[in-house]
Design goal:
There is one protein chain. This protein is α+β, with helices and mostly antiparallel strands and 884 residues long. The protein contains 34 helices and 27 strands. It starts with 15 loop residues before the first helix and ends with a helix.
């Protein structure tokens, strides 16, 4: 309660408690200001230790303090700053383990600190035995500590660590103490953050400095020995030298072999050293492929990898050497994977190791490039010498001596076989081989040499289909083709690889060469094979050139004869007046550019007539373009005829040139024109009138000079009346009509056509059918041929294939009774019965058609009304002639 004096000059007297509070707050403010000034000067861990050991201890009593940090994954925390001088547990047996341990970020103790978000005071007895409590609580209690003040350290509203303050005097951590610590906690957090950043900067500067020095050394490396020494020096500088090995990917791309190494241990036997450094270890063993696929260094536990089932021998050797963990780093230079760097270290700074790996990759790439240059120069010198020897080769024996000499100079390469293709272009004949290679299987080898082999044999076909070479693993081939005698023979030699290549000269296949080896030098062997090809080509030059010349002359003559037969309309079979009229029309129209409309039933040879017109025209030097209007969907026929631009419609991914443009200055044959949709007819009419077109989706007008020949089996006049064909287009096309008569109207041509087709298909099939029996000829001439010439052609082809004699004695006409021989019609009954049967058979052959062109009345030579009367009179029903 405040009191006042009467004169009013004195201030009211404050209670003693208010004075104490004011003094406490002033003292606290002064302490915080002093400590804040000290904290701002902190740059490293030593400064922070001095702050706790001298400044704060002068104000309050506590035994010792440490700082712990939460790991980036926020799963645990570990010691960061220690004060071992003041710590009462520094002599404890567990001290060394504790300062290097990670403590889980879970449990009632630490979760309580995180939840509080401010300093929390604990009695050791209350928390040290709780589930999940860290072991350092019990150890400190055993060292005399009774209370612990835990203060979370935060940065950007996130807890980054903890300030641990221990005391062995219960009650020494007062409210004032806690308040001061809570006040300076943000500054301590900032100081810790600064220390971490400063440490990282100093470490990066040190690493960059060392890496720069190592980079200079690695850049000068040109040999394996220099690479091994520089890698050793680099690892020593970073205190990482516990032994290393660099494995290089072999030429087979499936194994790796040690390139350079320094095991760093002496407890390795000579046999183990040879096995570890000279063996080929598989890439895809479940471990090395993981390293190669990883973008960062991969740390592996050897025991764990063995338990996972990885059976690679090097893991056991590492285990015998006493290694527990290894770090694998993929060595890459650009897009090229070189191999793997293995380091025998326990803990890994991944970013540092990745930087080291990158520099070693560049150095290794330089060494490999230098070695490749040396090897290529050596190979060039080697191949130049072999080329000079091959140039002097004139006989097979000279070539054999040169080949054996060069292969003996290449490491463990043996000539298995050279096979040459015979003149029939099918048979493969042994030309040269090394018999001593197959001493353990001489009988099998002699049998294969004596046996007839062809280019279609699976292994030979694979080689001849290869672009340059084929590398086969003998073990894999034996597993895939255990019954192949060639593979069985290879396996008995004990060599790993079969190098096979086609022998070619001027892109022509001469044969195959087969080489067995344990060490692949693909480029060198390919160069040797090319020289061998040249030598063989020189040996065979004269007879091959003459043989090819004769063959080409024969083929050229045959081709000319075939073209002449195919396109010369003078060779079209047909001597009757109907066909003579067609020939006259062809002669009249061929030299002009007039549009021609060819009509006729299906199979009458309309396309042949069109080609004859084109071949006799001034446009014959260019190819006639054909479009079958019935074979194209309505939505595609415009694109086919006029073309389209890219993107004109869905699916138009590129520009397409239409048939009209292709036929410019030539002839366009539109077959089955009667099937063209009406919407396409409009555009066709415009092109015919204007002689210009626009592609679908295009804006440019394209001029064309095209002669049009059309063909149809429809009556276009009737189609126009029915509204299915445009009359204006019909009149535009019907400039010069040519009608082809059906085969039934030119029966005199049936026998010559039959002989023509028999001769053609006899030659094509290799049969010796030359004649047709009179009985068959009579049947052919009496058949109505609804399919016309096409039906006759296919029927004669079938007869040739089915005939077993030089003469065709049986023809397989539709609806012909192939059972017992039928009695003559005259013997079957009365004249009325014969007439009835004749009418029924004729209607059947006309497929039920009574009147009109191709109807039964036309074949019987009577009016349709008369035929109807006879059908009614003779009691003929539809069931009788439509039964089949």
């Amino acid at each position: 309660m405040k009191t006042t004096t009467q004169n009013g000059n004195d201030l009211p007297a404050a209670p003693k408690t208010d004075l104490k509070t004011k003094e406490f707050l002033e003292k606290q403010r002064k302490i915080l200001l002093d400590l804040s000034d000290d904290i701002t000067q902190i740059r490293d861990k030593t400064d922070l230790i001095i702050l706790f050991s001298s400044r704060i201890k002068n104000l309050f009593y506590f035994k010792h303090t440490i700082v712990t940090l939460i790991d980036p994954e926020r799963t645990s925390y570990r010691p960061f700053l220690l004060d071992p001088v003041s710590s009462p547990i520094q002599t404890h047996p567990s001290y060394a383990r504790l300062v290097d341990s990670d403590f889980p970020l879970r449990g009632a103790f630490i979760e309580g600190v995180l939840d509080a978000g401010k300093p929390v005071l604990y009695w050791m007895e209350d928390i040290m035995d709780l589930p999940g409590s860290p072991s350092f609580l019990r150890v400190n209690y055993e060292g005399g500590i009774r209370e612990i003040l835990m203060t979370p350290l935060k940065s950007k509203n996130e807890t980054i660590g903890f300030l641990h303050m221990y005391t062995d005097r219960p009650g020494s951590i007062t409210e004032e103490f806690i308040s001061i610590i809570e006040g300076i906690a943000p500054q301590i957090s900032s100081a810790v953050t600064n220390i971490i950043k400063n440490d990282e900067i100093r470490e990066k500067e040190w690493i960059n400095e060392i890496l720069l020095e190592c980079s200079i050394g690695l850049a000068a490396v040109r040999t394996r020995e220099e690479l091994a020494g520089t890698v050793r020096t680099t690892l020593i500088r970073f205190n990482l030298m516990r032994g290393f090995g660099i494995r290089r990917i072999n030429a087979d791309q499936e194994t790796m072999t040690t390139y350079v190494h320094d095991l760093g241990v002496t407890n390795v036997s000579e046999a183990e050293m040879i096995e570890l450094t000279q063996s080929q270890f598989p890439i895809y063993d479940g471990l090395q492929d993981r390293v190669l696929d990883s973008s960062i260094p991969l740390q592996v536990n050897i025991d764990a990898e063995i338990r996972r089932g990885i059976t690679s021998r090097y893991l056991v050797l590492w285990q015998d050497m006493g290694l527990k963990t290894m770090v694998g780093i993929a060595l890459r230079n650009g897009d090229v994977t070189l191999g793997v760097l293995w380091l025998g270290i326990e803990q890994a700074n991944l970013s540092l190791l990745q930087a080291i790996g990158s520099q070693i990759s560049v150095a290794m790439s330089n060494v490999l490039a230098a070695e490749e240059i040396i090897d290529r120069e050596r190979e060039k010198t080697f191949l130049l010498g072999f080329s000079n020897e091959v140039a002097r080769v004139r006989t097979k024996e000279d070539l054999k001596n040169a080949v054996f000499k060069v292969l003996n100079r290449v490491l463990n390469v043996k000539l298995a076989m050279i096979n040459l293709i015979e003149d029939d272009n099918v048979t493969l004949k042994p030309f040269m081989y090394d018999r001593t290679l197959f001493e353990n299987a001489s009988e099998e080898f002699d049998a294969l040499v004596a046996a007839s082999n062809t280019i279609h044999e699976p292994t030979a076909a694979r080689v001849l289909a290869a672009e340059d070479r084929l590398i086969l693993k003998v073990a894999e081939e034996l597993q895939a083709c255990p019954d192949n005698p060639f593979v069985q023979l290879w396996a008995k030699t004990g060599l790993k690889y079969m190098f096979a290549a086609p022998l070619r000269s001027a892109q022509a296949d001469l044969g195959t060469i087969w080489l067995l080896t344990d060490n692949l030098k693909s480029e060198l062997l390919q160069g040797i094979c090319s020289q061998i090809s040249t030598a063989i080509a020189n040996i065979q030059a004269n007879e091959k050139i003459l043989a090819y010349k004769r063959m080409l002359e024969m083929e050229n003559s045959q081709l000319k004869e075939q073209i002449k037969r195919t396109y010369n309309f003078n060779e079209i079979v047909g001597s009757g007046p109907e066909m003579q009229q067609v020939y006259d029309l062809i002669s009249l129209v061929s030299e002009s550019n007039s549009t021609v409309l060819i009509t006729g039933e299906t199979g009458t040879g309309k396309e042949l007539i069109a080609r004859a017109i084109h071949s006799a025209s001034p446009r014959k030097d260019k190819l006639m373009i054909k479009v079958n209007c019935a074979a194209l969907p309505a939505n595609l026929i415009e694109s086919e005829l006029f073309g389209h631009e890219k993107g004109a419609f869905t699916g138009a991914v590129e520009r397409r040139i239409g048939k009209f443009e292709l036929a410019d200055n030539s002839t366009l044959f539109l077959d089955e024109i009667g099937e063209m949709p009406l919407e396409a007819q409009v555009k066709l009419l415009r092109v015919l009138q204007e002689k210009e077109l626009e592609r679908i989706g295009g804006k440019t007008t394209i001029k064309v000079n095209v002669r049009i020949i059309t063909a149809t089996n429809r009556n276009l006049g009737e189609e126009v009346k029915a509204g299915r064909f445009r009359s204006d287009l019909y009149y535009r096309l019907n400039v010069f009509p040519i009608h082809l008569p059906p085969l039934r109207d030119r029966r005199d041509d049936i026998i010559p056509l039959a002989h023509l087709f028999v001769d053609r298909y006899s030659k094509a099939t290799g049969r010796k059918v030359r004649k047709i029996s009179p009985k068959v000829l009579q049947e052919l001439t009496s058949y109505p041929w609804p399919g016309n010439v096409r039906e006759l052609e296919h029927l004669m082809e079938r007869c040739v294939l089915l005939s077993t004699e030089p003469m065709i004695r049986e023809v397989y006409l539709p609806n012909k009774n192939t059972g017992a021989e039928v009695q003559p019609v005259a013997m079957l009954g009365t004249l009325e019965d014969v007439e009835r049967m004749h009418i029924i058979e004729t209607i059947k052959r006309c497929r039920g058609k009574l009147a009109g062109r191709g109807g039964a009345a036309e074949y019987l030579g009577m009016p349709a009304t008369t035929l109807h009367s006879k059908i009614k009179k003779l009691g003929i029903t539809k069931r009788q002639y439509l039964a089949e």
